[in-house]
Amino acid sequence: MTTVDDTAHADHPTSASHPRQAPPTGDFDLLGHVLAQPEPGLTVDDFLQRARDLRDHLRSEQEATEKRTYYSQETHEVFQRDGFYRMLQPRTLGGYELRVAEFYRVIVEIARGCPSTGWCLALGSGHVLLFSSLFGPEVQSEAMGEDGHFIAPHRVVPSVRAVAHGDGWELKGTWDYNSGAPYSTHALGTVALPPGEDGAPRFGLAVVPRSCYTVLDDWGDNIGLRGTGSPSIRMENAVVPLGNVREVDGQDPLWAEPVGMALHGNPMYAGRFSGFFFGESLAVATGIGRAMLDEYRSVLLEKKPMWNPHGLRADDAHYQRWYGEACSLLDAAEAVLRQVGELYHDLSERGVRGEGEFGVADDLRLTNLCAQGGRYATEAMDLLVRTGGSSALRQGTRSERYWRDFSAYRTHPAAMTRDLMTLRFAAADLEARRARAVTDAETTAVNSDTTKAGG
Fold first, then answer.
1. 72: how many CB neighbours lie within 10 A of its CB?
2. Average pLDDT over residues 217-246
3. What does the alpha-carbon distance between residue 384 and residue 392 come to, in Å, rounded to a whole number?
4. Distance between CA atoms of 163 and 239, rounded to whole angstroms?
5. Confidence check: pLDDT of 21 > 70
6. Strands (E), 371-441
7. Which residues, 6 or more positions from 354, have their beta carbon under 8 angstroms from its beta carbon?
8. Which residues contact 408 (CB under 8 A, 6 or more apart)?
9. Structure-model confidence comparison of residues 392 and 176, the more confident one
10. CA distances from 386 to 353, 375, 379 (A)
11. Cα Rg of the chain, angstroms
């Protein structure tokens, strides 16, 4: 891929134009302006009811959503009118500031109506948590504008290059897999920065307004989740202000020192994000499982088993056992999902109180919990497919679509990297405990010496 030409590099030497960036600073009390909620006072119960009310509409549009590769303009307008894009948005920016576990519950319900739509909504609306945590007040105010409407996909692979350009950055490259891009107002993604003075690679997190990128038509030929609106976006010499790129930890492309707590007064904007992102995927997977269970239940109440006695499947002990087990497995997946959301808040609040850092090991703990929840959902899905009969998977049926969508989830990093994340968690957790033990021993030694001296 061609990058910015050599002349641009010559005009902006690394040592002079690319110092390591300090966390954004500004007037954290004012944010430039504070936005009002369009419909004040909405709670998670309101969003859950609205999501359930949308279920029939979403199911009626599943086929068209797949063909279009993203949900309809009508659905987008409903989401915008009813506040779904603002669920995790700070109240100071006109949002509803739901807890993470509450957000997950709503996504489960939307995905139960249409898995692709649930995925697109989750990833398009959920990244405001990252944005509101890491970027400075001027950047947030500018992005939100006067109405607070914000939708942003996010891509972690640094396939876009950033070089200094006047008082800002010039971006060039392509990010693929941008779920939520069709209706996006911005895009978030990792960029490759010029190397440091020691030659070490550096990376940043960029927020890019819609006017600076092109959404490509290259999505929809995968086995499932074809309607998630996940195309590539391309930037050609796009220029953004300096504050629109934050340097991130080279080992964690989602981590920079948060400023969101100071801006918005809520510890949820001071956390880490890998576990949160994995939770979004688990919420959709759980919703797919619930949708498949709905189809399975309908068949039990209508069809007979292959064996005697030929009553309804709903009255057969084998089908009752399979149905009951699938229900409990999906309940377990959803219980894990809610625990992930609540732990996110607990860890964030602990860090803000100074009781311990929300560290890498904690974040990996959440990703591993999501993987375990995914195992429950996968076991339930396998059971429902195996015992549902071949006719349930005829082409064009909802069950066939749910099976394809879930198969796509199983290839996603949130599901396929379970063993890798387990190893990373173990290494990070043991290292943190080792360091803590050394610190405790040193503290004990100092206290002992102090006591002896006093004696």
1. 16
2. 97
3. 10
4. 10
5. no
6. none
7. none
8. 222, 223, 224, 225
9. 176
10. 49, 16, 10
11. 24
